[in-house]
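REQUEST FORM: STRUCTURE PREDICTION
Request ID: SP-0412
Submitted by: Lab K.M.
Chain count: 1
Length (residues): 329
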Amino acid sequence: MKNIALLIPQGDTSLSNIEATFKMFTKVNEALERAGKPPLFKVYLVGLTREPNTTHAFTIHPDMGLDNALRADLVIIPAVHGDVKKVLEMNKDFIPWIIKQYKYGAGLVSLCIGAFILASTGLLDGRSCTTHWLAVNEFRSMFPKVKLVPYKIITDEDGIYSSGGAYSSLNLILYLVEKFAGREMAILTAKIFEIEIDRGSQSPFMMFNGQKEHEDQEIIKAQDYIETNYQEKITVDQLAIMLCMGRRNFERRFRKSTSNSVIEYIQRVKIEAAKRSLETSRENVNEVMYKVGYTDTKAFRTTFKKITGLSPIQYRTKYNKENVSQFEN
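STATUS: Completed
RESULT:
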Protein backbone atom coordinates (compact mmCIF):
# COMPACT_ATOMS: atom_id res chain seq x y z
CA MET A 1 0.00 0.00 0.00
CA LYS A 2 1.43 3.36 -1.04
CA ASN A 3 0.63 6.34 1.18
CA ILE A 4 -0.14 9.43 -0.89
CA ALA A 5 -0.05 12.79 0.85
CA LEU A 6 -2.20 15.15 -1.22
CA LEU A 7 -1.42 18.58 0.15
CA ILE A 8 -4.16 21.12 0.87
CA PRO A 9 -2.30 24.44 0.72
CA GLN A 10 -3.64 27.66 2.13
CA GLY A 11 -5.18 30.05 -0.38
CA ASP A 12 -7.06 29.60 -3.64
CA THR A 13 -6.22 25.94 -4.13
CA SER A 14 -7.02 24.15 -7.38
CA LEU A 15 -10.03 22.02 -6.54
CA SER A 16 -9.78 20.29 -9.92
CA ASN A 17 -6.23 19.12 -9.12
CA ILE A 18 -7.31 17.76 -5.76
CA GLU A 19 -10.56 16.11 -6.83
CA ALA A 20 -9.15 14.54 -10.01
CA THR A 21 -6.06 13.19 -8.23
CA PHE A 22 -8.17 11.68 -5.45
CA LYS A 23 -10.65 10.18 -7.92
CA MET A 24 -8.05 8.64 -10.23
CA PHE A 25 -6.19 6.81 -7.48
CA THR A 26 -9.50 5.74 -5.95
CA LYS A 27 -10.71 4.32 -9.28
CA VAL A 28 -7.49 2.30 -9.58
CA ASN A 29 -8.17 0.79 -6.15
CA GLU A 30 -11.72 -0.06 -7.19
CA ALA A 31 -10.50 -1.75 -10.38
CA LEU A 32 -7.95 -3.77 -8.42
CA GLU A 33 -10.57 -4.86 -5.91
CA ARG A 34 -12.89 -5.97 -8.74
CA ALA A 35 -10.03 -8.12 -10.00
CA GLY A 36 -9.67 -9.69 -6.56
CA LYS A 37 -6.48 -7.78 -5.75
CA PRO A 38 -5.75 -5.57 -2.73
CA PRO A 39 -5.94 -1.77 -3.15
CA LEU A 40 -2.64 -0.12 -3.95
CA PHE A 41 -3.09 3.50 -2.84
CA LYS A 42 -4.22 5.27 0.32
CA VAL A 43 -4.79 8.98 -0.25
CA TYR A 44 -4.56 11.38 2.70
CA LEU A 45 -5.50 15.05 2.49
CA VAL A 46 -2.75 16.85 4.40
CA GLY A 47 -3.09 20.47 5.48
CA LEU A 48 -0.87 22.68 7.58
CA THR A 49 -3.37 21.82 10.30
CA ARG A 50 -6.70 19.98 10.33
CA GLU A 51 -8.53 23.28 10.03
CA PRO A 52 -10.87 23.37 6.98
CA ASN A 53 -9.70 25.33 3.96
CA THR A 54 -12.44 27.29 2.16
CA THR A 55 -11.87 27.96 -1.54
CA HIS A 56 -14.61 30.03 -3.14
CA ALA A 57 -17.87 28.22 -2.25
CA PHE A 58 -16.14 24.94 -1.35
CA THR A 59 -14.61 23.75 1.90
CA ILE A 60 -11.90 21.08 2.08
CA HIS A 61 -11.43 19.15 5.32
CA PRO A 62 -7.87 17.78 5.64
CA ASP A 63 -7.51 14.30 7.12
CA MET A 64 -4.49 15.43 9.08
CA GLY A 65 -2.05 18.27 9.71
CA LEU A 66 1.73 18.33 9.52
CA ASP A 67 2.00 17.24 13.15
CA ASN A 68 0.84 13.76 12.14
CA ALA A 69 3.57 11.13 11.85
CA LEU A 70 2.62 10.10 8.29
CA ARG A 71 5.47 8.64 6.25
CA ALA A 72 4.46 9.28 2.64
CA ASP A 73 5.45 7.40 -0.48
CA LEU A 74 4.26 10.28 -2.68
CA VAL A 75 3.68 13.93 -1.81
CA ILE A 76 1.47 15.70 -4.33
CA ILE A 77 1.35 19.51 -4.47
CA PRO A 78 -1.65 21.01 -6.31
CA ALA A 79 -1.74 24.44 -7.92
CA VAL A 80 -2.49 27.46 -5.73
CA HIS A 81 -3.62 30.60 -7.53
CA GLY A 82 -3.03 34.27 -6.73
CA ASP A 83 0.01 36.36 -5.87
CA VAL A 84 2.87 33.86 -5.88
CA LYS A 85 4.88 35.50 -3.11
CA LYS A 86 1.84 35.63 -0.84
CA VAL A 87 1.03 32.01 -1.65
CA LEU A 88 4.56 30.92 -0.76
CA GLU A 89 4.52 32.90 2.48
CA MET A 90 1.17 31.37 3.51
CA ASN A 91 2.48 27.87 2.86
CA LYS A 92 6.11 28.17 3.98
CA ASP A 93 5.59 25.67 6.81
CA PHE A 94 5.09 22.94 4.21
CA ILE A 95 8.67 23.38 2.98
CA PRO A 96 10.63 21.61 5.78
CA TRP A 97 7.97 18.88 5.88
CA ILE A 98 8.31 18.25 2.13
CA ILE A 99 12.12 18.18 2.39
CA LYS A 100 11.92 15.69 5.26
CA GLN A 101 9.54 13.42 3.32
CA TYR A 102 11.90 13.42 0.33
CA LYS A 103 14.84 12.66 2.60
CA TYR A 104 12.92 9.63 3.91
CA GLY A 105 12.31 8.37 0.36
CA ALA A 106 9.02 9.91 -0.78
CA GLY A 107 8.51 10.94 -4.37
CA LEU A 108 7.52 14.58 -4.85
CA VAL A 109 4.92 15.67 -7.38
CA SER A 110 3.94 19.19 -8.44
CA LEU A 111 0.84 19.85 -10.51
CA CYS A 112 0.76 22.94 -12.73
CA ILE A 113 1.89 26.02 -10.75
CA GLY A 114 2.30 23.89 -7.65
CA ALA A 115 5.85 23.85 -9.05
CA PHE A 116 6.46 27.17 -7.26
CA ILE A 117 5.97 25.51 -3.87
CA LEU A 118 8.13 22.56 -4.87
CA ALA A 119 10.88 24.84 -6.20
CA SER A 120 10.87 26.74 -2.89
CA THR A 121 12.29 23.64 -1.19
CA GLY A 122 15.51 24.00 -3.20
CA LEU A 123 15.20 20.35 -4.21
CA LEU A 124 14.59 21.32 -7.85
CA ASP A 125 17.88 23.23 -8.18
CA GLY A 126 19.81 21.68 -11.06
CA ARG A 127 16.87 19.42 -11.93
CA SER A 128 14.25 19.55 -14.67
CA CYS A 129 10.76 20.90 -14.05
CA THR A 130 7.74 22.05 -16.02
CA THR A 131 4.77 24.23 -15.12
CA HIS A 132 1.95 26.17 -16.77
CA TRP A 133 3.27 28.03 -19.82
CA LEU A 134 1.67 31.26 -18.57
CA ALA A 135 3.91 31.16 -15.47
CA VAL A 136 7.19 30.50 -17.26
CA ASN A 137 8.71 33.98 -17.05
CA GLU A 138 7.84 34.46 -13.39
CA PHE A 139 9.13 30.99 -12.51
CA ARG A 140 12.43 31.58 -14.30
CA SER A 141 12.99 34.88 -12.53
CA MET A 142 12.27 33.38 -9.10
CA PHE A 143 14.08 30.06 -9.54
CA PRO A 144 16.95 30.53 -12.02
CA LYS A 145 18.76 27.38 -10.80
CA VAL A 146 15.92 25.11 -11.95
CA LYS A 147 16.13 23.61 -15.46
CA LEU A 148 12.73 24.72 -16.67
CA VAL A 149 11.41 22.77 -19.67
CA PRO A 150 8.04 24.48 -20.28
CA TYR A 151 7.15 22.53 -23.44
CA LYS A 152 6.95 19.23 -21.61
CA ILE A 153 3.80 17.79 -20.09
CA ILE A 154 5.74 15.65 -17.59
CA THR A 155 9.18 15.60 -15.99
CA ASP A 156 10.59 12.73 -13.92
CA GLU A 157 14.01 13.13 -12.35
CA ASP A 158 15.40 11.61 -9.15
CA GLY A 159 11.96 10.86 -7.73
CA ILE A 160 10.68 14.38 -8.40
CA TYR A 161 7.84 14.81 -10.89
CA SER A 162 6.11 17.85 -12.37
CA SER A 163 3.31 18.49 -14.85
CA GLY A 164 2.41 21.23 -17.28
CA GLY A 165 -0.54 23.56 -17.00
CA ALA A 166 -4.12 23.06 -15.87
CA TYR A 167 -5.65 19.70 -16.82
CA SER A 168 -2.39 18.30 -18.17
CA SER A 169 -1.86 17.32 -14.52
CA LEU A 170 -4.11 14.35 -15.35
CA ASN A 171 -1.38 13.06 -17.65
CA LEU A 172 1.10 13.08 -14.79
CA ILE A 173 -1.29 11.22 -12.47
CA LEU A 174 -1.84 8.71 -15.27
CA TYR A 175 1.94 8.41 -15.65
CA LEU A 176 2.22 7.62 -11.91
CA VAL A 177 -0.59 5.07 -12.18
CA GLU A 178 1.38 3.31 -14.91
CA LYS A 179 4.59 3.50 -12.91
CA PHE A 180 3.10 1.93 -9.78
CA ALA A 181 0.16 -0.13 -11.09
CA GLY A 182 1.26 -1.08 -14.60
CA ARG A 183 0.47 -0.21 -18.21
CA GLU A 184 -2.78 -2.17 -18.35
CA MET A 185 -4.19 -0.25 -15.38
CA ALA A 186 -3.04 3.05 -16.90
CA ILE A 187 -4.86 2.28 -20.15
CA LEU A 188 -8.01 1.36 -18.24
CA THR A 189 -7.79 4.59 -16.22
CA ALA A 190 -7.23 6.64 -19.38
CA LYS A 191 -10.38 5.13 -20.86
CA ILE A 192 -12.46 5.75 -17.72
CA PHE A 193 -11.41 9.40 -17.52
CA GLU A 194 -11.14 9.84 -21.31
CA ILE A 195 -7.56 11.12 -21.16
CA GLU A 196 -5.23 11.00 -24.15
CA ILE A 197 -2.48 8.70 -22.91
CA ASP A 198 1.21 9.30 -23.69
CA ARG A 199 0.75 12.99 -24.51
CA GLY A 200 4.22 14.46 -24.02
CA SER A 201 4.01 18.13 -24.97
CA GLN A 202 1.97 21.20 -24.10
CA SER A 203 3.48 23.07 -27.06
CA PRO A 204 0.25 23.19 -29.14
CA PHE A 205 -1.48 25.09 -26.32
CA MET A 206 1.22 27.66 -25.70
CA MET A 207 0.73 31.29 -26.71
CA PHE A 208 3.96 33.22 -27.03
CA ASN A 209 4.11 36.47 -25.09
CA GLY A 210 7.54 38.03 -25.19
CA GLN A 211 9.20 38.51 -21.83
CA LYS A 212 9.09 42.26 -21.23
CA GLU A 213 9.18 42.33 -17.45
CA HIS A 214 12.75 43.57 -17.49
CA GLU A 215 14.34 47.01 -17.37
CA ASP A 216 16.52 46.98 -20.48
CA GLN A 217 14.75 49.62 -22.57
CA GLU A 218 16.95 49.06 -25.62
CA ILE A 219 15.97 45.39 -25.72
CA ILE A 220 12.30 46.33 -25.36
CA LYS A 221 12.75 48.53 -28.46
CA ALA A 222 14.12 45.51 -30.33
CA GLN A 223 11.22 43.35 -29.16
CA ASP A 224 8.68 45.96 -30.23
CA TYR A 225 10.35 46.27 -33.64
CA ILE A 226 10.25 42.48 -34.15
CA GLU A 227 6.59 42.27 -33.12
CA THR A 228 5.60 45.13 -35.43
CA ASN A 229 7.64 44.04 -38.46
CA TYR A 230 7.57 40.24 -38.23
CA GLN A 231 6.35 40.01 -41.86
CA GLU A 232 9.75 41.24 -43.03
CA LYS A 233 13.15 39.58 -43.05
CA ILE A 234 14.81 40.75 -39.82
CA THR A 235 18.46 40.02 -39.04
CA VAL A 236 20.45 40.19 -35.82
CA ASP A 237 22.92 42.59 -37.41
CA GLN A 238 20.09 44.89 -38.51
CA LEU A 239 18.72 45.10 -34.95
CA ALA A 240 22.16 45.61 -33.41
CA ILE A 241 22.92 48.48 -35.81
CA MET A 242 19.51 50.02 -35.16
CA LEU A 243 20.31 50.10 -31.42
CA CYS A 244 23.95 51.19 -31.93
CA MET A 245 25.30 48.05 -30.24
CA GLY A 246 27.88 45.48 -31.11
CA ARG A 247 26.31 42.19 -32.17
CA ARG A 248 27.75 40.11 -29.32
CA ASN A 249 26.70 42.61 -26.67
CA PHE A 250 23.21 42.86 -28.19
CA GLU A 251 22.77 39.09 -28.31
CA ARG A 252 23.99 38.72 -24.71
CA ARG A 253 21.62 41.40 -23.40
CA PHE A 254 18.71 40.07 -25.43
CA ARG A 255 19.05 36.52 -24.07
CA LYS A 256 19.53 37.77 -20.52
CA SER A 257 16.35 39.86 -20.75
CA THR A 258 14.04 37.54 -22.67
CA SER A 259 15.41 33.99 -22.06
CA ASN A 260 15.46 33.62 -25.87
CA SER A 261 18.11 34.18 -28.48
CA VAL A 262 17.25 36.90 -31.00
CA ILE A 263 16.62 34.31 -33.72
CA GLU A 264 14.38 32.24 -31.41
CA TYR A 265 12.39 35.35 -30.53
CA ILE A 266 11.88 36.29 -34.18
CA GLN A 267 10.80 32.73 -34.97
CA ARG A 268 8.33 32.60 -32.08
CA VAL A 269 6.72 35.92 -33.02
CA LYS A 270 6.33 34.78 -36.64
CA ILE A 271 4.94 31.36 -35.65
CA GLU A 272 2.50 32.91 -33.18
CA ALA A 273 1.15 35.09 -36.00
CA ALA A 274 0.95 32.03 -38.25
CA LYS A 275 -1.00 30.14 -35.58
CA ARG A 276 -3.57 32.93 -35.37
CA SER A 277 -4.04 32.89 -39.15
CA LEU A 278 -4.39 29.11 -39.25
CA GLU A 279 -6.97 29.27 -36.46
CA THR A 280 -9.17 31.96 -37.97
CA SER A 281 -8.63 32.42 -41.71
CA ARG A 282 -9.25 30.48 -44.91
CA GLU A 283 -5.71 31.07 -46.15
CA ASN A 284 -3.77 27.97 -47.13
CA VAL A 285 -0.46 27.08 -45.49
CA ASN A 286 1.68 28.71 -48.19
CA GLU A 287 -0.31 31.95 -47.97
CA VAL A 288 0.15 32.00 -44.19
CA MET A 289 3.85 31.26 -44.60
CA TYR A 290 4.41 34.24 -46.92
CA LYS A 291 2.24 36.48 -44.75
CA VAL A 292 4.53 35.98 -41.72
CA GLY A 293 7.73 36.49 -43.67
CA TYR A 294 8.90 33.00 -44.62
CA THR A 295 9.80 32.11 -48.21
CA ASP A 296 11.27 28.65 -47.60
CA THR A 297 8.51 26.06 -47.20
CA LYS A 298 10.75 23.49 -45.50
CA ALA A 299 12.13 26.03 -43.03
CA PHE A 300 8.62 27.24 -42.16
CA ARG A 301 7.22 23.76 -41.60
CA THR A 302 10.27 22.65 -39.59
CA THR A 303 10.19 25.73 -37.34
CA PHE A 304 6.41 25.52 -36.91
CA LYS A 305 6.56 21.89 -35.80
CA LYS A 306 9.54 22.52 -33.51
CA ILE A 307 7.62 25.24 -31.66
CA THR A 308 4.09 23.81 -31.65
CA GLY A 309 4.68 20.08 -31.86
CA LEU A 310 2.36 19.91 -34.88
CA SER A 311 2.73 20.51 -38.60
CA PRO A 312 0.91 23.60 -39.97
CA ILE A 313 -1.73 21.35 -41.58
CA GLN A 314 -2.23 19.37 -38.35
CA TYR A 315 -2.55 22.61 -36.40
CA ARG A 316 -5.11 24.03 -38.82
CA THR A 317 -7.14 20.81 -38.75
CA LYS A 318 -7.14 20.78 -34.96
CA TYR A 319 -7.87 24.44 -34.22
CA ASN A 320 -9.47 26.18 -37.20
CA LYS A 321 -13.03 27.08 -36.21
CA GLU A 322 -14.46 26.09 -39.59
CA ASN A 323 -12.88 22.64 -39.40
CA VAL A 324 -14.22 22.20 -35.85
CA SER A 325 -17.74 23.27 -36.94
CA GLN A 326 -17.68 20.83 -39.86
CA PHE A 327 -16.60 18.05 -37.50
CA GLU A 328 -19.34 18.86 -35.02
CA ASN A 329 -21.97 18.90 -37.76
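NOTES: Residues 251 and 262 are 7 Å apart (CA to CA).
Reviewed by: T.R.
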